Amino acid sequence: MRKTELTWLPHLFTAGNLFFGFWAIIQLFEGNILVACWMIIAASIMDGLDGKVARLTHCSSKFGTYFDSLADTVSFGLAPAVLLYAVSFNRFGFAGVLLSLIYLLFGVLRLVRFTANSSSEEKSRFEGLPIPMAANTLASFVLFNHAAWHSLALELLLIPISLGLAFLMISRIPYEVLPRFTFRDTRKNLAKLVFIIGGIILVAIDPQRMFFPLMVIYLLKGILTEILSPADTEEELEEAVGD
Is the pLDDT of residue 241 over 80? Predict the structure, then answer.
C-alpha cells in the first residue's frame, strides 16, 4: 500500500481526539461531570495513538502536527478549563473565570512551544509536562473524589492542583514518553514496562480510584528527576530539542 493511501489514518485518530474533547464539553453543559472526565481520558488515548500511527505508516507531516495541536487545545486545554469552572471555580465569579483561564493559557503556551520544536523523530523525553497528562490529572482527580466520597470532597485542592499543572506544563522539567515495545527497548526499559503493565491492571480493576494515584506518581517522578539530577536532564533535553 502506498504512503499516499495511508495519510488519512493518523488524522482519523486526531479527529477522534477532537471528537471526544468536544463531547466532553457538551457533557459538561448537560451536567454529566463524570462522563466528561472519561471523554477527556478517551481523547488522550486517541492523541497517544495518532503519533504512533503516523510514525508506523511514515505519514508524519506538518499538517498532522498542526491538526494535532489544535485538537489538543480543545481536548486538553479548553475541556479541562471548562471542567474546572463547572465543578468548582464558578462559585468564585470572575476570579473563577481567570483561574480556569490560567490553565487554558499555559496549556496553549505549552502546545505552541511543543509544535515550534517538533520533528518527525520520536523523542524519549518531553520538556515540561505534556498537556494530555495535565488534563488526565484533573479528570482523574474528579473521578477519584466521586469514587471515594461520592462528591468533590477535596474541592479546595483544585486551585493548587490546576496552578501547579499550569506551571509544570511551561517548565523545563523532563517527562518521559512511553517506551517503545520492541525487543531491544523492552529489555532496556523493563522496569518501566513492568510499572506500565501493573498500572494498566490496577486501572482495569478500579479505574476511578487508581487512575489519579498513577498520575501523581508520573508527576512526581519528573519533579524528583529534575531535583536529583538536574545536569543530566538538561543535557538530555538539549539533545531531544536538537534532534
Answer: no
Partners of 57 in beta bridges:
none
Please give the Cα distance from 62 to 188 (Å, whole number).
31
3-242 folds as: Four Helix Bundle (Hemerythrin (Met), subunit A) (1.20.120)
Q: What is the pLDDT of residue 105?
A: 98
H or E element, residue 230: helix 230-242
Q: Which three cell numbers stand for residue 155?
A: 474541592
Residue pair 137/212 in contact by the 8 Å Cβ criterion:
yes
Stretch 64-92: mean pLDDT: 96
pLDDT above 60: residue 179? no
* Digit-coded pLDDT (tens) for 22-33: 999 999 999 999
Q: Do residues 144 and 151 lie in contact, with contact meaning Cβ atoms separated by under 8 Å?
A: no
Number of alpha carbons in the 13 Å side-chain half-sphere of residue 92: 17
Rounded distance between C-alpha atoms, residue 167 and residue 169, angstroms: 5
Domain borders along the chain are 3-242
Query: Alpha-carbon distance 57 to 47, whole Å?
Result: 16
Mean pLDDT for the chain overall: 86
Helices (H), 78-206: 79-87, 94-116, 131-149, 158-170, 183-188, 190-205
